[in-house]
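User: Please predict the structure of the protein below. I'd like the answer in structure-token form so I can feed it into my own downstream comparison script.

Assistant: Understood. Taking the following sequence of 246 residues as input:
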Amino acid sequence: MRRLLLALGLILLLPAAASAQQLLESYRAYLSWNDHFNSNGDRLTEPWQVIRQDRANYHRFGERDPLDEWDSFFASIDNRAAAERMLANGYISPAARASIVNGEALVTVEIWGRGTTGTAIRVDVVGGGTVQGAAPAQGDTVLMETYRAYLSWNDHFNSNGARLTEPWQVIRQDRANFHRFGERDALDEWDSFFASADNRARAEAMIRDGYISPAARAAIVNGEALIRVEIYGRGGAATYLRIDVF
């Protein structure tokens, strides 16, 4: 009789055990300003929208930030469409919610589910804050320097008078005007990195390896713009730029 009761008890426990959620996958993502706008250019205001757009940018459009990690789950458009429901069923820390809504953030996303079906996601910031405010581990990319620049029409023409049409060209010319020719706009700020002609020559590659927001790209190409330039690197060597409008 005791064995029969024990067997019945185990049978009753099986559905509960089978329905228990498990961690299916986790990844790290840098939610840049590019991830805060949808394909129509509309500003996204909910964390799940930014998380979904980040994965669409990564998997569908190939727009990947340097700190982004691969995941298999959100490679599926159907799974990305479930992001809102999965976050509602899961958890997002107050720090992550504030960081994502108000600016760029480095987050960890955990995908929980049953079998191969994702049912919930858990989201938190990496290191307890945004990339700029967090203390990265040794060897990680760090923010080395930042400056503000007003890209006036004077910065849109090179020394030969030719019109510049690429953002990196205008940014490079602005720093050449500032450091080499002493032609400084009222809102320009000093930086040490681009005081070097060799570093200015790297501007194109550093933007290609980094990020420029759609708003900054459009503003720079089409007219004058006030921008923020962040210089990132590892071990004292700068590797890429991040650019956005003020």
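That's the full token string. Confidence is low (pLDDT under 50) at residues 4-19, 127-139.
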